[in-house]
From TrEMBL:
It comes from Theobroma cacao. The keyword Repeat applies. The lineage of its organism: Eukaryota, Viridiplantae, Streptophyta, Embryophyta, Tracheophyta. One of its GO terms (cellular component) is mitochondrion. Coiled coil: none annotated. PPR repeats lie at residues 163-197, 198-232, 233-267, 268-302, 303-337, 338-372, 373-407, 408-442, 443-477, 478-512, 515-549. This is Pentatricopeptide repeat (PPR) superfamily protein.
Amino acid sequence: MLTLYPTMTKLLTNSICSCRCLSSFPSKVSRAQPTPLSDQLFNSAPQSGSFRLGDSTCYSLIHHYAHKVDFASLHDVLCRMKLQNRVFIEKYFLLIFKAYGRAHLPEKAVDLFHRMPHEFHCKPTVKSFNSVLNVIIQEGFYHRAFDFYNCSVSAKNTNISPNVLTFNLLLKAMCKLGWVDRAIEVFREMPLRKCAPDVYTYCTLMDGLCKEDRIDEAVSLLDEMQTEGCFPTPVTFNVLINGLCKKGDLARAAKLVDNMFLKGCLPNQVTYNTLIHGLCLKGKLDKAVILLDRMVSSNCIPNDITYGTIVNGLVKQGRVEDAVMLVVSMEERGYGVNEYVYSALISGLFKGGKSEEAMKRWTEMMEKGYKPNTVVYSSLIDGLCREGKPNEAEEVLSEMIEKGCIPNAYTYSSLMKGFFKTGNCHKAVQVWKDMAEHKCIHSQVCYSVLIHGLCEDGNLSEAMMAWRHMLDKGCKPDAVAYSSMIQGLCNAGSLEEALKLFNEMLYQEAESQPDVITYNILFNALCNQKSISHAVDLLNSMLDQACDPDIATCNIFLRTLREKVDPPQDGREFLDELVIRLFKRQRVFGASKIVQVMLQKFLPPKASTWARVVEELCKPKKIQAAIDKCWRNIYC
């Protein structure tokens, strides 16, 4: 065969096959590679060696064209094989199924699978079935995966018996669809089908449970799998650690890491990165940095994600200087700063009012030859808009598009906000229109920015048009959109319509529920119309909805009591009662904020209220925790 291959290469010339046996193959493909098997090669096969007796040459050709995703050439090869009455074996089709997966053509894979027995006289086994099932699931067609399973496995005269990979794929599809309980049922049935779950089975189910916030059930599977003789891998622990970190339960996550060491599983990059990300989400940046040092000392090399996560966390806490120092430290250690790190840094510097430093970092990134991606460009555009420079930001957007970097909804939203902020409503609306021209889908955030800007500019009628357009598109308004419309209606004197919209909010999902800003808009409108009793009723409703008042809430009521009540009141008694009511609801943080406002306004609480404050804030456990923290700071 080795002597045949050069001869075969020379004989590959363009040819047209009249056979129509594989007419379902896509016809539009690149012909950059030599087109398939010539008559000369097939006709001379008996003299060229054991081509007819062996299938390695056919396999090599199918492998080559499948790798190139050249379906027209595959069509020619298989047609020639049929004309020569060659034997088709399953491994040919496995290659083609993978090619269909790379080409995102799951239905073509299904069609070929069903044609294998009668057209190519090759009976598919579970290997072919799993290959096609994987293609379907990789494309996200989860319901179609179950149709294919039921049709193929339940069919008569089939020799397909599901194995552990089959069940793993089905469990993955179920978990993706949120059918976790159904997935558990299938999981429990696996031993009855003489199919023992493997580590991937457990990992898939654990991940599904974690995504449904059923962490305890996921953790219990860890003990179960070990009892069943299936030993966890670092991936198993990483799934659970990720779930616990997202939930904010860092203590249990840390215990799982200790458990990893006991089981002989060493934490890897993913483990450390997950823990560091969890610590950053909780604002525990110092601990994240300590964990980074531990990671290095454990000979686990940090990567761009590790440093990028900490830099992003520092920036979000306003510790931009520390972020810059960390970046310098990274470079000194020989770690390249990637686009993600630069994006976090540039965005944080702009938010911290350090635009010159941000532009310096942008220039530095360009000089080092980094190619800005959408995230970095968007950070720069957002930063320039925050500085009141939307025209410069628009120039950056043009450069971004020219360089083939596609703007996303966040990019356009930032630019819209920038123009609205500078009072250029017309340009902001034009940016909205440009989004459609560039085929960028208007997201929920985009609608919120547009509606808020139009209401702020006094264009209530246009804002209502945008509102109706959003609803027609099936896009649900968030709290910002609702609050903006309520503000616009209140400014236009349509308080009754604003209250109707507010009542509608109360029946929406969590992201559309009224927040303190929404309540303050209505408090202000009601108090301006001297509907103080209605405002107080709304305040009671606010407390019942577990929404705490803020400084703006206090100022609205204090101003009303002093200016619109006869005789005027200083508001001390009102705020004092509000503190007590919050304490009764165990809302210590909210009550503490009101006490701070009272002290700032020289309206000291009553003695009984002070006693309640001291009693709540100075509990023995809290005091001991504060003392312990002081000692740690002194000696550690």
